[in-house]
Amino acid sequence: MTVMGHPSFAAWSASRAGSGGFGGNITVVDKVPPEMLYLIDSHWYQFPPMNPLWHGILGLVIGVLGCISIIGNGMVVYIFLSTKPLRTPSNLLVVNLAMSDFLMMFTMSPPMVINCYYETWALGPFMCELYGMFGSLFGCGSIWTMTFIALDRYNVIVKGLSAKPLTHKTALLRIILIWLFCIVWTIAPMLGWNRYVPEGNMTACGTDYLNREWLHRSYILVYSGFVYFLPLLTIIYSYWFIVQAVAAHEKSMREQAKKMNVASLRSSEASATSAECKLAKIALMTIALWFFAWTPYLVTNFMGIFASANISPLSTIWCSLFAKANAVYNPIVYGISHPKYRQALQKKFPSLVCGSTGDDTTSAASGVTNVTTDDKAAA
What we know:
It is found in: Membrane. The protein is mostly helical and 379 residues long. The chain contains 10 helices and 2 strands; from the N terminus they run αααααββααααα.
């Protein structure tokens, strides 16, 4: 049953009958409660109801992803905060990332499962605004946390001894700045600069990217600049120099080993360097997954403000799903690749660890790498 009180497959079958049959004018908007209609753009009135099977699949997938994300990110927060060697300034950023992803799916998954059951937004206009704001807020929080993680890796790996160490106070200040910045941007649509409206599948809410007024267009353009392109360019800049520093260090080590007629100069300090370089790869993988998750949503928003004709309700499902699935990746990446995290996980939840955790004594998220020092040692 739907919120309109009619069998969902019957409504969908009627719409498939075409304009010549009974119910041929039924649209995806017809199931929307009357109090929500002022938020619906006229663009969506041209589309028939979606096959209820899509709603079932979407509800199942988002429910499963929600459970994985909430449990996974909850475990990351618990393990990092309850394990003393992991309570480092750098790892506070990791905890903030996990908390942002946890809150993302905690606020996104249950409402979407409910709406997929009713096949439309059934929670009212105010909840639609809150849903859109929370999704934007925690998405923004995740990407800027990843940006600061990349900058911290740049500071540790590229600058070496000349770098100013990250302290707990500085890390907490950065986290506060991240959330203040994100709140300002994501509360703006609730104050009149753009707005949060139901998306084409009518089971989720997001920014209004179909309104052609420049007040609304300008928000999408400026927001994407500060919350997508600026962080992305900062991350690319950071990792470009990280890769260069690592490559230069490895080249120096090989040349010195050749001069000394030995196979390798790998020492305990070099092992620490390998741990740090490994974390750089982990963070780069996480950010790449974020890029693939949020780029389709960005493309949809840009298509909306410039050429909305190609956007269908079905396409908005995949954009929304890809974006929310980002909150699932991070605990998996850290659980597989973070040595100290795996060791702590094995102690607290041994049944969840597959394979050996190794004997890594350097926290890949907090140890300080100094390429210059290693080069001097090699010399």
